[in-house]
């Protein structure tokens, strides 16, 4: 034992149903961190902690796809001279959860990631040929998201026209017809998923999952990609195009709406567990780039996308 941290009410970090409140929402966050640091200088042997760390063996457990293997698995999807594939990425207070490795994988494969805010921007970034809608807290900003009618309508139109799109958890909520806020007030959303989302008041399908493609799509039929679910909200239409398998119990359930160029569902995917998912997404984006928005075939459920 090299130290301890006593209870510090002045440094308390508030939490809510999905974990800690986000940094920019905490008043006086830097003062709280400084207060904890000042106490730890007195109650912990920081020098000894650093000395222990320096003696530790180097361990590289991070999976990084070798460059040669990356290029073999994902040949250039754009002819030389055409530039990089521009992928729009929703990033603001409402959409703030991404596996950074997923974004890094897209960059390594040649994509240019273009952030935008569904809360503030009235239009999608120009020239994008793919769309990522990550997790976060859209339910806390449902009224503001709903008021941004021009962006909602543009996203619905572009997805219907075949814009390759991956939406996870909070992004999936945003694409529904209706989203309920924590006070049970309902607001219209993008509307490409014909259902409504509501607060269950508890964790729903919590934990790690393996997602298995039922038909050829973002992965070959039967292939898996790893992910997790962590949400209190549920949908009246969760989808049935992908099978989710719990890795320990083996319990299975259906989820995800997958069109020919869309993957929309609650699970957060870890793309490095099967990089082919990212490469297929970029191949779809390249095809969209070349065809300039030629509509793709409807999915088997008959939805426009």
Biggest β-sheet strands, sense, barrel: 7 strands, mixed
Radius of gyration of CA atoms, rounded to a whole number = 21 Å
- The helicity comes to 25-40%
Overall geometric form: globular
- The number of helical elements comes to 8
Mean pLDDT: 87
The total beta strand count reads 17
Question: Can you give a write-up of this model?
Answer:
The chain contains 8 helices and 17 strands. It starts with 14 loop residues before the first strand and ends in a 14-residue tail after the last helix. The C terminus is likely disordered. Strand 9 and strand 10 form a beta hairpin. The strands form 4 sheets. Strands 9, 10, 11, 12, 13, 14 and 17 form a 7-stranded mixed beta sheet that branches. A 6-stranded mixed beta sheet has the order 5-3-6-8-16-15. Strands 1-2 form a two-stranded antiparallel ribbon. The protein has 305 residues and is of the alpha/beta class.
SSE layout:
Elements: E1 15-16, E2 19-20, H1 29-43, H2 46-55, H3 67-73, E3 85-90, E4 95-97, H4 100-108, E5 111-116, E6 130-133, E7 135-136, H5 142-147, H6 149-160, E8 165-168, H7 170-174, E9 176-180, E10 186-188, E11 193-213, E12 224-235, E13 242-245, E14 252-255, E15 257-258, E16 262-265, E17 268-269, H8 276-291
Parallel strand pairs: 3-5, 3-6, 6-8, 8-16, 9-11
Antiparallel strand pairs: 1-2, 4-7, 9-10, 11-12, 11-13, 12-17, 13-14, 15-16
């Amino acid at each position: 034992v090299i130290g301890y941290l006593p209870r510090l009410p002045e440094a308390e970090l508030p939490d809510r149903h999905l974990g800690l409140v986000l940094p920019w929402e905490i008043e006086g966050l830097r003062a709280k961190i400084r207060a904890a640091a000042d106490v730890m200088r007195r109650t912990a042997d920081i020098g000894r902690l650093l000395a222990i760390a320096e003696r530790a063996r180097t361990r590289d457990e991070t999976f990084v796809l070798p460059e040669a293997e990356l290029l073999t698995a994902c040949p250039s999807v754009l002819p030389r001279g055409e530039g990089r594939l521009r992928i729009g990425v929703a990033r603001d207070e409402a959409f703030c959860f991404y596996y950074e490795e997923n974004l890094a994988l897209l960059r390594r494969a040649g994509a240019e990631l273009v952030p935008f805010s569904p809360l503030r921007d009235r239009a999608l970034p120009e020239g994008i040929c793919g769309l990522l809608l990550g997790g976060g807290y859209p339910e806390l900003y449902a009224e503001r998201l709903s008021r941004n009618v021009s962006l909602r309508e543009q996203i619905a139109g572009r997805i219907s026209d075949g814009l390759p799109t991956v939406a996870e958890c909070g992004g999936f909520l945003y694409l529904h017809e209706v989203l309920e806020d924590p006070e049970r007030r309902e607001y219209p959303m993008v509307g490409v998923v014909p259902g409504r989302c509501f607060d269950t008041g508890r964790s729903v399908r919590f934990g790690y999952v393996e997602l298995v493609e039922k038909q050829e799509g973002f992965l070959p039929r039967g292939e898996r990609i790893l992910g997790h679910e962590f949400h209190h909200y549920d949908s009246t239409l969760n989808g049935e195009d992908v099978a989710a398998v719990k890795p320990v119990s083996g319990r299975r359930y259906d989820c995800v709406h997958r069109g020919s160029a869309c993957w929309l569902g609650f699970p957060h995917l870890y793309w490095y567990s099967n990089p082919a998912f990212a490469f297929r997404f970029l191949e779809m984006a390249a095809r969209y780039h070349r065809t300039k928005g030629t509509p793709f075939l409807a999915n088997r459920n008959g939805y426009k996308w």
